[in-house]
Amino acid sequence: MPIKVQNNLPAIKVLKSENIFVMPNEVALKQDIRPLKILILNLMPTKIATETQLLRLLGNSPLQVDIELLQMASHTSKNTSPHHLTTFYKTFAEIKNDTFDGLIITGAPVEHLPFEEVDYWQELCEIMEWSKHNVYSTFHICWGAQAGLYFHYGIRKYPLDKKLSGLYEHKVLHPLHPLMRGFDDRFCIPHSRYTTIRLDEIKRCPGLEVLAVSEKAGPAIICNKSGRQMFVTGHAEYDRETLANEYYRDISRGLNPNIPCNYFPGDDAAQTPPMVWRSYATLLYTNWLNYFVYQATPYDLRDLLKRYPH
């Protein structure tokens, strides 16, 4: 089944070229089913690329998914045109009285700042608090995962000596957990960040389970025991060239970055990186949609407010 988005969103052309079914609004209105309502809070500077990456994964399931895009009213984007944001995005004030099956909070390039110094931190805290009552399951990515762990559980982030960038191997710790169903014992996904969280601090939190860990990248997939919050410290959604583009950008800024680990063949940046994580990314998002959204959320989303009152 398809994802449903606004008709002229730039991601549509790319997704259709990949044979991912995107349904126009006028067709979706004729469907006699309730689609899943998924809200994407896009904090990435490359918003159009991130939209495409996430919609690709959400569209590769048998479920019809109705997408809303959310921006921060308290932050002015420097990399995305105001026209794109006003055309395709809503603010929290416009959706705060609504309920959603799922919410995705992306990463953001603000890791060097303490959480409280990020210009939209208070608005993000308001959204994360709202999500406990108005969203059934929330999927946090990279800095969004660190922010969610800090806000909900008080787990801190720590600076790394050097940027963690590359394709890292992970070990599945709980293969029978629904989020990890179908995963091999070991799998790779990209990471790209300057900070980390500590495994021992997560293990001391009784409400959390670490589902996958990397020897080099640390805790990678974490779930709270209710299934209503997922935290992924890597970027399973990344395209083939995303890490390469970030590497070239850092070089142009004079940051002298290390070449991404285990990414370019022979560590030769002139070579094309192989795409070896797409199947795991698809499985991760499909498992989340199936087991923690579709099978668990109430049919009438207004029941969320009765089940999880403020």
Per-chain topology:
Elements: E1 3-4, H1 11-17, E2 22-23, H2 25-28, E3 36-41, H3 47-58, E4 65-70, H4 82-88, E5 89-90, H5 92-95, E6 100-105, H6 121-134, E7 135-141, H7 143-153, E8 158-172, E9 186-196, H8 199-203, E10 208-214, E11 218-224, E12 229-232, H9 242-252, H10 278-294, H11 303-307
Parallel strand pairs: 1-2, 1-4, 3-4, 3-6, 4-5, 6-7, 7-12
Antiparallel strand pairs: 8-9, 8-10, 10-11, 11-12
Helix pairs in contact: 1-3
What would you note in describing this structure?
With 310 residues, the chain is α/β, with parallel strands linked by helices. The chain has a single domain (3-305), classed as Class I glutamine amidotransferase (GATase) domain (Rossmann fold, 3-Layer(aba) Sandwich). The chain contains 11 helices and 12 strands. The two termini are 34 Å apart. Mean pLDDT is 91; it is low at 27-32.
List keywords for this structure.
globular, 31% helix, 310 residues, alpha/beta, Rossmann fold
